[in-house]
Amino acid sequence: MLYDIIIIGGGIVGLATGLKIKEQKPELKIAILEKENELAKHQTGNNSGVIHSGLYYKPGSLKATNCIAGYHQLIQFCDEENIPYEITGKVVVATQKEQIPILNGIYERGLQNGLNGTRHITLDELKEYEPYCAGVAAIHVPQTGIVDYKQVALAYGEKFKKLGGEIFLEHEVKRTNSLKGYTVVQTNKQHFDTKLIINCGGLYSDKVAQMNQEEELDVKIIPFRGEYYKLKKEREYLVKNLIYPVPDPNFPFLGVHFTRMMKGGVEAGPNAVLAFKREGYKRSDVNLKELSETLAWPGFQKVAAKYWKTGFGEMYRSFSKAAFTKALQELIPDIQESDLVEGGAGVRAQACDRTGGLLDDFSIKENQYAINVLNAPSPAATSSLSIGQTVSELALKRF
């Protein structure tokens, strides 16, 4: 059977893309292929549930424009579908004087990105927002919130199906073969003929992209595991909402922070360590083929040479609860090692180019047969409907 569009990947971006296309052109025949036995199992189902405001991103970048547009679309969608969320606000806190210029830069970016109400707060005001938090300077961002993204993604999927879209679970794409005018997508169960592939494969997006183009890709997905602890129930009072540190401007991760969860509880983390398997949620998860591909990538070798000190620190925190606690104590001095119980972990699909650049922005590449979403880490969940709209506009130009 010939489909107009096959979307590979049943995470939040793939589902949002299918929904956006169906809303605009319901007559198109579209299927989403997901290799797992459920939707939103990987990055979508293992993130911290933060509704990002667009504070950190370079004005005019895909991350900034899609995060801010996606934020408003997400809130509207949750209101329409009765999905619970909270706009909690967050504080970003400098714990050392040398971080203040970076904090000021983040504040300026927020203003440039239209985050009205974001403001510098006094240390007394910081205590009002987060009584147990310590720092030398802080800003408050009122727009940040929390939601259960798995619930959001499943709602996208239901709406997509109501509009006539099809979802095939347990269909892992093995190869694609482009012929004149259409492409054959072969899964572990059957084949699909399609006029266009949209690749939202997340942790395997580079592998899927390599299937649909002749030249070798100039980016590779490097999997970084983020490990979390949770605060014991009796110590959750230490965090009212969301507390973030000033991020390292050279490292594309936000640092360990505190997040009150929509499902209840408070998460502390994540760190950012190299995963030895693309879907390696535990330290013991190893795939030698995938690990050797990562280590052999020239871009990763350059990243490792540049960030080896940061990397060792993150790895040390992975194995040492005391070191993890010490990092958290910079924000909340009262936190003790005994307050923390092991939480979950997520794996971030971080695109890395051949020259050692960790792609900071979303990356969407087109060729004759496919649209490949090659880099869509955080804030992709917040931005999902806007990314879906962006991809749908590229797709619909072809029909």
Can you describe what's shown?
The protein is an alpha+beta fold and 399 residues long. It has 3 domains: 1-85 and 144-218 and 361-399, 3-Layer(bba) Sandwich (FAD/NAD(P)-binding domain), CATH 3.50.50.60; 90-142, no CATH class; 219-353, D-Amino Acid Oxidase, Chain A, domain 2 (2-Layer Sandwich). The protein has 10 helices and 20 strands. It has helices spanning 12-24, 62-81, 100-112, 123-129, 149-162, 205-211, 288-296, 298-319, 321-329, 380-396; strands spanning 2-8, 30-33, 50-51, 85-87, 90-94, 119-121, 137-141, 145-147, 166-168, 173-178, 183-187, 191-199, 219-231, 242-245, 257-260, 266-269, 273-274, 340-353, 363-366, 370-375. The strands form 3 sheets. Strands 5, 6, 7, 13, 14, 15, 16, 17 and 18 form a 9-stranded mixed sheet that branches. Strands 1, 2, 9, 10, 11, 12, 19 and 20 form an 8-stranded mixed sheet that branches. The chain has a 3-stranded antiparallel sheet with strand order 3-8-4. Strand 15 and strand 16 (266-269) form a beta hairpin. Helix 2 packs across helix 10 (380-396).
